[in-house]
Amino acid sequence: MKINFFQIVILFVFLFLIFFLVNNFFYQSIKNTVFSIFSPVEKFLWQKGNSFSQWRNGIFEINKIKIDNNELKKENLLFKNKIIELANIEKENKELRQALGLGLEREYNLILADIISKKTEEDSILINQGKKNGLKENMAVITNEKVLVGKIGKVFNDFSQVNLISQKGFNFDAKVIVGESETLGAVHGQGNFKIKIELLPKELQFKEGDIVVTSLLGGIFPENLLIGKIKTIKKNDLTPFQEAEIIPCFKEIKSDHLFIISPK
């Protein structure tokens, strides 16, 4: 059977329509199906990739925060140290002003010292001034309020030992203030931060709270440095004198600074 030209044209048109329909409808459906199948996988990979990116960025941010935090801690520590240093300077200046306010600088050359440590069993303390600062043995040591603490014992280049007036064997002359009168006596260190005054005339009346200060007699300390207050009084019929226990004023000291009296 012969196929004419018209039939060939009809066949080509028919094939073209089939190709057109497949390309525009079935292809889109296939693409949609493929996308539907693989889209969850792509979404999962994208989310994981995004999460990994966020995690990676988070790690960098955490490291940066840690570095910044460490820097802030260092700066904060330096700031605190500076505050402490300024506070110590202010405290020293305040005590120096108090000492100057009492007129001590008119009477003595004063050397400011810091307390390094205390030896309770020896009734002594260690200070941060020594030979290089002009300190010598037997120099008086006081507070900014003219309270007698002791005297310089051993002296080293950069520090010195202060023997407290309560140290056993520490003896010096003093006087008790009773009203407008003064009575001489002798102070003796008892150890363990205790002192007493002896050789007080029996015929005189003393009471708890009477003030005891230094005397020029003996030449160990300047006059009228505060020693303490009478606590208890003891009388003995066998002797012409009485004695009294003294509460030393240096026990009430809360400062870390002392003054050494140097001769003018």
Automatic annotation (TrEMBL):
<dbReference type="InterPro" id="IPR007221">
    <property type="entry name" value="MreC"/>
</dbReference>
<keyword id="KW-1133">Transmembrane helix</keyword>
<dbReference type="InterPro" id="IPR055342">
    <property type="entry name" value="MreC_beta-barrel_core"/>
</dbReference>
<feature type="transmembrane region" description="Helical">
    <location>
        <begin position="6"/>
        <end position="27"/>
    </location>
</feature>
<dbReference type="InterPro" id="IPR042175">
    <property type="entry name" value="Cell/Rod_MreC_2"/>
</dbReference>
<comment type="similarity">
    <text>Belongs to the MreC family.</text>
</comment>
<dbReference type="InterPro" id="IPR042177">
    <property type="entry name" value="Cell/Rod_1"/>
</dbReference>
<keyword id="KW-0133">Cell shape</keyword>
<keyword id="KW-0472">Membrane</keyword>
<keyword id="KW-0812">Transmembrane</keyword>
<feature type="domain" description="Rod shape-determining protein MreC beta-barrel core">
    <location>
        <begin position="119"/>
        <end position="261"/>
    </location>
</feature>
<dbReference type="GO" id="GO:0005886">
    <property type="term" value="C:plasma membrane"/>
</dbReference>
<dbReference type="GO" id="GO:0008360">
    <property type="term" value="P:regulation of cell shape"/>
</dbReference>
<protein>
    <recommendedName>
        <fullName>Cell shape-determining protein MreC</fullName>
    </recommendedName>
</protein>
<dbReference type="Pfam" id="PF04085">
    <property type="entry name" value="MreC"/>
</dbReference>
